[in-house]
Amino acid sequence: MVVVASVSAIYGLGDPDLYLKMMLHLTVGMIIDQRAILRRLAELQYARNDQAFQRGTFRVRGEVIDIFPAESDDIALRVELFDEEVERLSLFDPLTGQIVSTIPRFTIYPKTHYVTPRERIVQAMEEIKEELAARRKVLWKTTNCWKSSG
């Protein structure tokens, strides 16, 4: 019998708990480097696109980051930084650019449910390499036994 399973099933990728840990929480007044926000957005599978602003993308202009949440149809988030402090969070209409409201905090969810922290991906790759090496040894022994008996 041969059992086939996806890599995510074998190595625990796509875990709901990891999904919850991947969320990015932003609060007015919090200290965070702009590059750290951009890095986290990339980890959440958001793509930078300064031209075509659509769901699951973000754009950067100076110390302003506009984020179009993947789960939103008609509202985007504007993060205004002053140095390394979140100075203002605003919800705005992505078509007109008009500010709808300012808010004290916002949570950005991963673009996909299959987002996995980089550390877990690296760990899974190492486990796959180790298993591959073990399987090669078994296959090598099996192949050599078959050749010598035939």
TrEMBL record:
<dbReference type="GO" id="GO:0009380">
    <property type="term" value="C:excinuclease repair complex"/>
</dbReference>
<keyword id="KW-0547">Nucleotide-binding</keyword>
<keyword id="KW-0067">ATP-binding</keyword>
<dbReference type="GO" id="GO:0005524">
    <property type="term" value="F:ATP binding"/>
</dbReference>
<feature type="domain" description="UvrB interaction">
    <location>
        <begin position="24"/>
        <end position="114"/>
    </location>
</feature>
<dbReference type="InterPro" id="IPR041471">
    <property type="entry name" value="UvrB_inter"/>
</dbReference>
<dbReference type="GO" id="GO:0006289">
    <property type="term" value="P:nucleotide-excision repair"/>
</dbReference>
<dbReference type="InterPro" id="IPR027417">
    <property type="entry name" value="P-loop_NTPase"/>
</dbReference>
<protein>
    <submittedName>
        <fullName>UvrABC system protein B (Excinuclease ABC subunit B)</fullName>
    </submittedName>
</protein>
<dbReference type="Pfam" id="PF17757">
    <property type="entry name" value="UvrB_inter"/>
</dbReference>
<dbReference type="GO" id="GO:0016887">
    <property type="term" value="F:ATP hydrolysis activity"/>
</dbReference>
<dbReference type="GO" id="GO:0003677">
    <property type="term" value="F:DNA binding"/>
</dbReference>
<dbReference type="InterPro" id="IPR004807">
    <property type="entry name" value="UvrB"/>
</dbReference>
